């Protein structure tokens, strides 16, 4: 029986070289096809569909602002950069961007929902419902009764949380919060739309709420001793451990016989 003779070395080398060349040629063809697809004008971004919350920015305005910042085709456009471009537009909190074959982008937007002004009156900062600070034209705010909150920026969420705690406790006084702030020393202060200022002191939300609730429940009784109504309140200090001090409009404190402030224990 005849046995096959092994192929000479030069033949093996030629076969190996041919295989490598064919593989290289195939790779080049594939790469060229991919390059053609990626660069073909057919796949250039032809349009952007904008959906979601667009109360403060029209889809036309958004596309006009963002389109010049886009680079690449349907396959090469940077979705993260596109999302960042939309989120840089005032009032836009989050943007979800995805491709729609063959040449479009779909964007779903979430806008900031302002619940308060933030910082000094000269600033254009707002606080959204998540306790996040953002900048926008305050003239675009639709609500005309937003309070002004203030405090360390890294504690904005905490300030909003405390505001939400104390606001309903003030309902019996038939008043609203005009300003609410957290000092650098951790003390809370609220100013009512009547102009009255209340020092709430420091402590946990439960501790502050307990002091405020005690004050609200007894204010009518204390004010009546001076023939005044609760709306005569000018200021109150709840930082005392055994009670609170208050000042009422029309109650003089200039004579020696009168105390500096009415005091409830």
- Beta-strand portion reads 25-35%
For this structure, the CATH topology of the largest domain is Rossmann fold
Q: Widest sheet: strand order?
A: 6-5-4-7-8-9-10-11-12-13
Q: At CATH's second level, what is the architecture of the largest domain?
A: 3-Layer(aba) Sandwich
Fold blueprint:
Elements: H1 9-39, E1 47-52, H2 59-66, H3 79-87, E2 92-100, E3 104-111, E4 114-118, E5 125-128, E6 133-135, E7 148-150, H4 156-166, E8 177-182, E9 188-192, E10 197-201, H5 205-224, E11 233-237, E12 244-248, E13 262-264
Parallel strand pairs: 1-3, 4-7, 7-8, 10-11
Antiparallel strand pairs: 2-3, 4-5, 5-6, 8-9, 9-10, 11-12, 12-13
What does this structure look like?
- With 265 residues, the chain is an alpha/beta fold.
- The chain folds into two domains: 45-111, Ubiquitin-like (UB roll) (Roll), CATH 3.10.20.310; 145-264, Rossmann fold (3-Layer(aba) Sandwich).
- Helix content is 30%, strand content 25%.
- The chain contains five helices and 13 strands.
- The strands form two sheets. Strands 6-5-4-7-8-9-10-11-12-13 form a ten-stranded mixed beta sheet, with helices on one face.
- The longest helix has 31 residues, at 9-39.
- The protein is elongated and about 120 Å long.
- The model is unreliable at 254-261 (pLDDT under 50).
């Amino acid at each position: 029986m005849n046995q096959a003779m092994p192929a000479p070395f030069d033949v093996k080398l030629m076969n190996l070289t041919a295989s490598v060349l064919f593989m290289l040629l195939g790779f080049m063809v594939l790469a060229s096809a991919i390059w053609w697809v990626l660069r073909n004008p057919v796949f250039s971004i032809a349009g952007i569909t904008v959906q979601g919350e667009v109360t403060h920015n029209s889809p036309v305005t958004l596309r006009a602002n963002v389109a010049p910042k886009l680079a690449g085709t349907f396959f090469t456009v940077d979705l993260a950069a596109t999302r960042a471009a939309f989120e840089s537009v005032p009032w836009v909190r989050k943007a979800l961007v995805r491709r729609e074959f063959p040449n479009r982008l779909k964007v779903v937007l979430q806008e900031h929902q302002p619940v308060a002004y933030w910082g000094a009156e000269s600033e254009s900062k707002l606080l959204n419902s998540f306790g996040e600070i953002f900048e926008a034209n305050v003239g675009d705010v639709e609500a005309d009764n937003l309070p002004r909150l203030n405090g360390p920026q890294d504690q904005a969420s905490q300030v909003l949380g405390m505001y939400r705690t104390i606001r309903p406790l003030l309902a019996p006084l038939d008043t609203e919060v005009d300003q609410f702030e957290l000092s650098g020393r951790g003390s809370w202060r609220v100013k009512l739309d009547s102009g009255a200022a209340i020092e709430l002191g420091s402590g946990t939300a439960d501790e502050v709420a307990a002091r405020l609730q005690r004050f609200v429940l007894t204010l009518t009784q204390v004010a009546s001793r001076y023939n005044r109504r609760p709306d005569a309140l000018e200021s109150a200090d709840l930082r005392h451990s055994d009670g609170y001090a208050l000042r009422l409009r029309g109650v003089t404190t200039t004579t020696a016989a009168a105390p500096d402030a009415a005091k409830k224990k």
